[in-house]
Amino acid sequence: MTETDEIRGKAEGTAPVPLSVLDLVTVGAGRTATDALHTSVKISRLAESRGFHRYWVAEHHSMPGVASSSPAVILAHLAAHTTRIRLGSGGVMLPNHAPLVIAEQFGTLEAMAPGRIDLGLGRAPGTDGATAAALRRTDLPHSRLRSSGGTPIRSDADDFPEQLAELTRFLDDDFPDGHPYARIHAVPGPVQSTSPGGVQSPHRPPVWLLGSSGFSARLAGVLGLPFAFAHHFSAQNTVPALDLYRESFRPSAVLAAPYALIGVSALATDDEKEARRQVLAAALNMVRLRTGRPGLVPTPEEAEAYEFSPMEREFINSWNSNVIHGTADEVRSGLDDLQKRTGADELMITGNAHSGDVRLRSYELIADAYGLPKAPATEAR
Predict the structure, then answer these.
(1) Alpha-carbon Rg of the chain, whole angstroms?
(2) Which residues, including other chains, have CB under 8 Å from residue 191's CB and lie 6 or more apart?
(3) Cα–Cα distance for residue pair 175/202, rounded to 1 Å
(4) Average pLDDT rounded to a whole number, residues 218-234
Protein backbone atom coordinates (compact mmCIF):
# COMPACT_ATOMS: atom_id res chain seq x y z
CA MET A 1 0.00 0.00 0.00
CA THR A 2 1.40 3.41 -0.97
CA GLU A 3 1.10 6.46 1.23
CA THR A 4 -1.40 7.88 -1.27
CA ASP A 5 -3.56 4.76 -0.79
CA GLU A 6 -3.37 5.29 2.95
CA ILE A 7 -4.63 8.84 2.51
CA ARG A 8 -7.38 8.36 -0.05
CA GLY A 9 -10.32 6.40 1.26
CA LYS A 10 -13.07 4.49 -0.51
CA ALA A 11 -16.70 5.57 -0.44
CA GLU A 12 -18.93 2.81 0.92
CA GLY A 13 -22.62 2.19 0.30
CA THR A 14 -24.30 5.22 -1.26
CA ALA A 15 -22.06 7.77 0.46
CA PRO A 16 -20.68 10.32 -2.03
CA VAL A 17 -17.22 10.22 -0.46
CA PRO A 18 -15.51 8.25 2.34
CA LEU A 19 -17.02 8.87 5.78
CA SER A 20 -14.87 9.11 8.91
CA VAL A 21 -15.22 9.98 12.59
CA LEU A 22 -13.79 12.82 14.68
CA ASP A 23 -14.04 12.07 18.41
CA LEU A 24 -13.74 14.85 20.98
CA VAL A 25 -14.19 12.34 23.83
CA THR A 26 -16.91 14.52 25.32
CA VAL A 27 -17.84 14.13 28.99
CA GLY A 28 -21.46 14.78 29.97
CA ALA A 29 -22.70 16.04 33.32
CA GLY A 30 -23.00 13.12 35.71
CA ARG A 31 -20.51 11.07 33.67
CA THR A 32 -16.77 10.46 34.04
CA ALA A 33 -13.81 10.53 31.69
CA THR A 34 -13.79 6.75 32.03
CA ASP A 35 -17.36 6.67 30.69
CA ALA A 36 -16.32 8.89 27.77
CA LEU A 37 -13.36 6.69 26.88
CA HIS A 38 -15.52 3.56 27.02
CA THR A 39 -17.84 5.29 24.54
CA SER A 40 -14.86 6.03 22.28
CA VAL A 41 -14.02 2.33 22.16
CA LYS A 42 -17.62 1.47 21.29
CA ILE A 43 -17.80 4.09 18.55
CA SER A 44 -14.43 3.11 17.08
CA ARG A 45 -15.53 -0.52 16.86
CA LEU A 46 -18.86 0.45 15.32
CA ALA A 47 -17.07 2.71 12.83
CA GLU A 48 -14.72 -0.11 11.86
CA SER A 49 -17.52 -2.64 11.44
CA ARG A 50 -19.58 -0.24 9.30
CA GLY A 51 -16.90 0.87 6.85
CA PHE A 52 -15.97 4.33 8.14
CA HIS A 53 -12.51 5.08 6.78
CA ARG A 54 -10.66 6.63 9.73
CA TYR A 55 -11.12 7.62 13.37
CA TRP A 56 -9.38 10.70 14.71
CA VAL A 57 -9.15 12.29 18.17
CA ALA A 58 -8.35 15.95 18.79
CA GLU A 59 -6.04 17.57 21.33
CA HIS A 60 -7.72 19.95 23.77
CA HIS A 61 -6.63 21.21 27.16
CA SER A 62 -8.22 22.60 30.34
CA MET A 63 -11.78 21.80 29.17
CA PRO A 64 -13.73 19.65 31.67
CA GLY A 65 -16.11 18.41 28.97
CA VAL A 66 -13.40 17.22 26.57
CA ALA A 67 -11.20 14.32 27.74
CA SER A 68 -8.80 14.29 24.79
CA SER A 69 -5.73 16.07 26.12
CA SER A 70 -3.47 13.13 25.17
CA PRO A 71 -4.29 11.90 21.64
CA ALA A 72 -1.38 9.43 21.47
CA VAL A 73 -2.50 7.70 24.68
CA ILE A 74 -6.11 7.44 23.47
CA LEU A 75 -5.02 6.16 20.05
CA ALA A 76 -2.93 3.42 21.67
CA HIS A 77 -6.03 2.35 23.60
CA LEU A 78 -8.19 2.35 20.46
CA ALA A 79 -5.55 0.40 18.54
CA ALA A 80 -5.92 -2.39 21.09
CA HIS A 81 -9.65 -2.64 20.34
CA THR A 82 -9.63 -2.38 16.53
CA THR A 83 -7.82 -4.12 13.69
CA ARG A 84 -8.53 -2.32 10.41
CA ILE A 85 -9.77 1.25 10.72
CA ARG A 86 -7.22 4.05 10.37
CA LEU A 87 -6.51 5.89 13.63
CA GLY A 88 -5.06 9.34 13.95
CA SER A 89 -4.86 12.78 15.47
CA GLY A 90 -7.20 15.48 14.34
CA GLY A 91 -5.01 16.87 15.52
CA VAL A 92 -1.93 17.09 17.62
CA MET A 93 -1.18 20.77 18.24
CA LEU A 94 2.46 20.81 17.20
CA PRO A 95 3.49 24.07 18.95
CA ASN A 96 2.61 22.42 22.27
CA HIS A 97 5.28 19.74 21.82
CA ALA A 98 8.87 19.12 20.83
CA PRO A 99 8.86 17.62 17.30
CA LEU A 100 11.06 14.72 18.44
CA VAL A 101 8.47 13.74 21.07
CA ILE A 102 5.70 13.62 18.45
CA ALA A 103 7.90 11.58 16.09
CA GLU A 104 8.58 9.10 18.91
CA GLN A 105 4.94 8.87 19.98
CA PHE A 106 3.61 8.30 16.48
CA GLY A 107 6.46 5.98 15.60
CA THR A 108 5.39 3.92 18.60
CA LEU A 109 1.76 3.99 17.46
CA GLU A 110 2.83 2.90 13.98
CA ALA A 111 4.67 -0.03 15.54
CA MET A 112 1.50 -0.95 17.44
CA ALA A 113 -0.82 -0.66 14.44
CA PRO A 114 1.30 -0.84 11.26
CA GLY A 115 -0.16 0.96 8.28
CA ARG A 116 -3.10 2.38 10.23
CA ILE A 117 -1.81 5.60 11.80
CA ASP A 118 -2.38 9.19 10.62
CA LEU A 119 -0.55 12.20 12.04
CA GLY A 120 -2.75 15.28 11.76
CA LEU A 121 -1.09 18.50 12.91
CA GLY A 122 -2.49 21.86 13.93
CA ARG A 123 -0.81 25.16 14.74
CA ALA A 124 -3.32 26.43 17.34
CA PRO A 125 -2.83 25.71 21.04
CA GLY A 126 -6.15 23.90 21.48
CA THR A 127 -6.77 25.99 24.59
CA ASP A 128 -6.53 29.52 26.04
CA GLY A 129 -3.36 31.58 26.20
CA ALA A 130 -2.55 30.95 29.86
CA THR A 131 -2.90 27.19 29.45
CA ALA A 132 -0.79 27.37 26.32
CA ALA A 133 1.96 29.02 28.35
CA ALA A 134 1.66 26.29 30.98
CA LEU A 135 2.19 23.76 28.19
CA ARG A 136 5.58 25.47 27.58
CA ARG A 137 4.60 26.85 24.20
CA THR A 138 6.79 29.84 25.04
CA ASP A 139 9.91 30.33 27.09
CA LEU A 140 8.57 33.61 28.41
CA PRO A 141 7.81 33.63 32.14
CA HIS A 142 4.21 33.89 33.32
CA SER A 143 4.82 37.48 34.42
CA ARG A 144 5.30 38.55 30.79
CA LEU A 145 1.93 37.31 29.57
CA ARG A 146 -0.37 40.03 28.32
CA SER A 147 -2.90 41.11 30.88
CA SER A 148 -5.80 40.72 28.45
CA GLY A 149 -6.62 37.04 28.61
CA GLY A 150 -3.10 35.85 29.36
CA THR A 151 -2.14 35.59 25.69
CA PRO A 152 1.61 34.98 25.19
CA ILE A 153 3.47 37.94 23.71
CA ARG A 154 4.85 35.59 21.09
CA SER A 155 3.45 32.22 20.11
CA ASP A 156 5.43 29.23 18.95
CA ALA A 157 2.70 28.87 16.29
CA ASP A 158 4.69 31.55 14.43
CA ASP A 159 7.38 28.88 13.94
CA PHE A 160 4.99 26.21 12.70
CA PRO A 161 6.59 25.70 9.24
CA GLU A 162 9.99 25.22 10.85
CA GLN A 163 8.61 22.85 13.48
CA LEU A 164 6.84 20.88 10.74
CA ALA A 165 10.06 20.59 8.75
CA GLU A 166 11.93 19.38 11.84
CA LEU A 167 9.25 16.82 12.65
CA THR A 168 9.29 15.51 9.09
CA ARG A 169 13.07 15.11 9.27
CA PHE A 170 12.71 13.07 12.46
CA LEU A 171 10.00 10.90 10.92
CA ASP A 172 12.16 10.22 7.85
CA ASP A 173 15.47 10.18 9.78
CA ASP A 174 17.13 12.30 7.10
CA PHE A 175 18.77 15.31 8.74
CA PRO A 176 21.72 16.30 6.53
CA ASP A 177 25.30 15.74 7.63
CA GLY A 178 26.48 18.53 9.87
CA HIS A 179 22.99 19.31 11.21
CA PRO A 180 22.91 19.50 15.04
CA TYR A 181 20.29 16.71 15.06
CA ALA A 182 21.94 14.45 12.51
CA ARG A 183 22.90 11.95 15.21
CA ILE A 184 19.52 12.05 16.94
CA HIS A 185 16.96 9.46 15.91
CA ALA A 186 13.25 9.03 16.60
CA VAL A 187 12.75 5.45 17.79
CA PRO A 188 10.79 3.48 16.71
CA GLY A 189 11.75 4.76 13.28
CA PRO A 190 13.82 4.31 10.12
CA VAL A 191 17.16 4.24 11.94
CA GLN A 192 16.35 0.73 13.14
CA SER A 193 16.55 -0.58 9.58
CA THR A 194 20.14 0.68 9.28
CA SER A 195 21.34 -1.11 12.41
CA PRO A 196 22.99 -4.54 11.97
CA GLY A 197 20.22 -7.07 11.43
CA GLY A 198 17.65 -4.29 11.45
CA VAL A 199 14.27 -4.66 9.76
CA GLN A 200 11.92 -1.71 9.73
CA SER A 201 8.24 -1.38 8.79
CA PRO A 202 7.76 0.18 5.35
CA HIS A 203 5.02 2.40 6.76
CA ARG A 204 5.43 5.91 8.09
CA PRO A 205 2.42 7.84 9.43
CA PRO A 206 1.23 10.21 6.69
CA VAL A 207 1.25 13.83 7.80
CA TRP A 208 -1.90 15.93 7.43
CA LEU A 209 -2.20 19.65 8.06
CA LEU A 210 -5.29 20.88 9.89
CA GLY A 211 -6.70 24.36 9.85
CA SER A 212 -9.63 26.73 10.27
CA SER A 213 -8.26 29.54 8.10
CA GLY A 214 -6.04 30.03 5.08
CA PHE A 215 -2.57 29.62 6.62
CA SER A 216 -2.47 25.82 6.87
CA ALA A 217 -4.50 25.49 3.67
CA ARG A 218 -1.81 27.28 1.68
CA LEU A 219 1.04 25.50 3.46
CA ALA A 220 -0.54 22.07 2.86
CA GLY A 221 -0.98 22.92 -0.80
CA VAL A 222 2.59 24.15 -1.28
CA LEU A 223 3.97 21.03 0.42
CA GLY A 224 1.66 18.64 -1.43
CA LEU A 225 0.13 17.30 1.79
CA PRO A 226 -3.46 16.27 2.55
CA PHE A 227 -5.53 18.94 4.27
CA ALA A 228 -8.29 18.76 6.90
CA PHE A 229 -10.49 21.79 7.46
CA ALA A 230 -12.47 22.43 10.66
CA HIS A 231 -15.83 23.21 9.07
CA HIS A 232 -17.55 22.24 12.33
CA PHE A 233 -16.41 25.47 14.01
CA SER A 234 -15.34 27.72 11.15
CA ALA A 235 -17.97 27.12 8.48
CA GLN A 236 -17.71 30.58 6.93
CA ASN A 237 -14.10 29.90 5.94
CA THR A 238 -14.56 26.41 4.49
CA VAL A 239 -14.96 27.13 0.78
CA PRO A 240 -12.30 29.89 0.66
CA ALA A 241 -9.79 27.67 2.50
CA LEU A 242 -10.44 24.67 0.25
CA ASP A 243 -10.14 26.86 -2.84
CA LEU A 244 -6.84 28.23 -1.55
CA TYR A 245 -5.57 24.71 -0.85
CA ARG A 246 -6.41 23.52 -4.35
CA GLU A 247 -4.97 26.62 -6.00
CA SER A 248 -1.73 26.33 -3.99
CA PHE A 249 -1.32 22.59 -4.45
CA ARG A 250 1.92 21.25 -5.88
CA PRO A 251 2.24 17.52 -6.60
CA SER A 252 4.57 15.72 -4.22
CA ALA A 253 5.83 12.25 -3.40
CA VAL A 254 2.83 12.02 -1.06
CA LEU A 255 0.02 13.18 -3.36
CA ALA A 256 -0.32 13.72 -7.08
CA ALA A 257 -3.53 15.73 -6.62
CA PRO A 258 -5.18 17.59 -3.73
CA TYR A 259 -7.07 15.65 -1.06
CA ALA A 260 -9.16 17.54 1.48
CA LEU A 261 -11.48 16.35 4.19
CA ILE A 262 -13.73 18.54 6.31
CA GLY A 263 -14.83 18.07 9.89
CA VAL A 264 -18.63 18.19 10.09
CA SER A 265 -20.82 18.46 13.17
CA ALA A 266 -23.75 16.09 12.59
CA LEU A 267 -26.14 14.27 14.89
CA ALA A 268 -28.86 11.83 13.84
CA THR A 269 -31.59 10.63 16.18
CA ASP A 270 -34.71 8.54 15.80
CA ASP A 271 -36.92 11.63 15.74
CA GLU A 272 -36.34 15.27 14.84
CA LYS A 273 -37.45 16.69 18.19
CA GLU A 274 -34.86 14.67 20.08
CA ALA A 275 -32.14 15.89 17.73
CA ARG A 276 -33.07 19.50 18.52
CA ARG A 277 -32.91 18.77 22.25
CA GLN A 278 -29.47 17.18 21.96
CA VAL A 279 -27.87 19.91 19.84
CA LEU A 280 -29.29 22.60 22.14
CA ALA A 281 -27.41 21.02 25.04
CA ALA A 282 -24.19 20.84 23.01
CA ALA A 283 -24.64 24.47 21.98
CA LEU A 284 -25.11 25.57 25.60
CA ASN A 285 -21.78 23.89 26.32
CA MET A 286 -20.22 26.04 23.57
CA VAL A 287 -21.81 29.21 24.99
CA ARG A 288 -20.17 28.49 28.32
CA LEU A 289 -16.84 27.69 26.69
CA ARG A 290 -16.84 30.87 24.60
CA THR A 291 -17.65 33.00 27.65
CA GLY A 292 -14.89 31.56 29.81
CA ARG A 293 -17.06 29.09 31.74
CA PRO A 294 -16.06 25.69 30.34
CA GLY A 295 -17.74 22.71 31.94
CA LEU A 296 -19.22 19.29 31.34
CA VAL A 297 -21.74 18.88 28.54
CA PRO A 298 -25.13 19.66 30.08
CA THR A 299 -28.17 17.41 29.82
CA PRO A 300 -30.93 18.30 27.35
CA GLU A 301 -33.19 18.95 30.35
CA GLU A 302 -30.75 21.52 31.74
CA ALA A 303 -30.48 23.21 28.36
CA GLU A 304 -34.28 23.39 27.96
CA ALA A 305 -34.60 25.02 31.39
CA TYR A 306 -31.75 27.49 30.81
CA GLU A 307 -32.72 31.14 30.30
CA PHE A 308 -30.66 32.31 27.33
CA SER A 309 -29.92 36.00 26.99
CA PRO A 310 -30.64 37.58 23.59
CA MET A 311 -26.93 37.50 22.77
CA GLU A 312 -26.65 33.86 23.82
CA ARG A 313 -29.73 32.97 21.79
CA GLU A 314 -28.19 34.64 18.75
CA PHE A 315 -25.02 32.60 19.23
CA ILE A 316 -27.04 29.39 19.63
CA ASN A 317 -28.96 29.99 16.42
CA SER A 318 -25.77 30.77 14.51
CA TRP A 319 -23.89 27.78 15.93
CA ASN A 320 -26.67 25.27 15.33
CA SER A 321 -27.18 26.47 11.76
CA ASN A 322 -23.91 24.65 10.99
CA VAL A 323 -24.85 21.48 12.86
CA ILE A 324 -26.53 18.97 10.58
CA HIS A 325 -29.15 17.33 12.76
CA GLY A 326 -32.45 15.51 12.59
CA THR A 327 -33.54 12.10 11.44
CA ALA A 328 -31.11 9.86 9.58
CA ASP A 329 -32.59 10.86 6.23
CA GLU A 330 -32.33 14.56 7.09
CA VAL A 331 -28.71 14.18 8.15
CA ARG A 332 -27.86 12.20 5.01
CA SER A 333 -29.41 14.94 2.86
CA GLY A 334 -27.50 17.63 4.75
CA LEU A 335 -24.19 15.80 4.39
CA ASP A 336 -24.79 15.25 0.67
CA ASP A 337 -25.55 18.93 0.14
CA LEU A 338 -22.47 20.01 2.08
CA GLN A 339 -20.20 17.68 0.12
CA LYS A 340 -21.57 19.02 -3.19
CA ARG A 341 -21.13 22.61 -2.06
CA THR A 342 -17.55 22.20 -0.85
CA GLY A 343 -16.26 19.42 -3.10
CA ALA A 344 -14.71 17.78 -0.03
CA ASP A 345 -12.97 14.47 -0.75
CA GLU A 346 -13.98 13.05 2.63
CA LEU A 347 -16.45 13.91 5.41
CA MET A 348 -15.27 13.48 8.99
CA ILE A 349 -18.30 13.49 11.26
CA THR A 350 -18.27 14.61 14.87
CA GLY A 351 -21.45 13.98 16.85
CA ASN A 352 -21.54 15.93 20.09
CA ALA A 353 -24.16 15.10 22.71
CA HIS A 354 -24.45 14.67 26.46
CA SER A 355 -24.96 10.90 26.26
CA GLY A 356 -22.50 8.43 24.82
CA ASP A 357 -25.40 6.22 23.79
CA VAL A 358 -26.87 9.07 21.73
CA ARG A 359 -23.55 9.58 19.96
CA LEU A 360 -23.21 5.86 19.26
CA ARG A 361 -26.76 5.67 17.91
CA SER A 362 -26.11 8.66 15.66
CA TYR A 363 -23.23 6.96 13.86
CA GLU A 364 -25.29 3.80 13.53
CA LEU A 365 -28.19 5.73 11.98
CA ILE A 366 -25.89 7.55 9.55
CA ALA A 367 -24.30 4.25 8.52
CA ASP A 368 -27.76 2.77 7.92
CA ALA A 369 -28.89 5.82 5.94
CA TYR A 370 -25.99 5.33 3.52
CA GLY A 371 -26.28 1.56 3.43
CA LEU A 372 -22.77 1.07 4.75
CA PRO A 373 -21.67 -2.57 5.06
CA LYS A 374 -22.33 -4.51 8.24
CA ALA A 375 -19.23 -6.48 9.21
CA PRO A 376 -18.92 -8.26 12.56
CA ALA A 377 -17.63 -5.94 15.28
CA THR A 378 -13.97 -6.36 16.14
CA GLU A 379 -13.35 -8.43 19.24
CA ALA A 380 -11.37 -6.65 21.93
CA ARG A 381 -7.87 -7.99 22.09
Answers:
(1) 21
(2) 173, 185
(3) 19
(4) 96
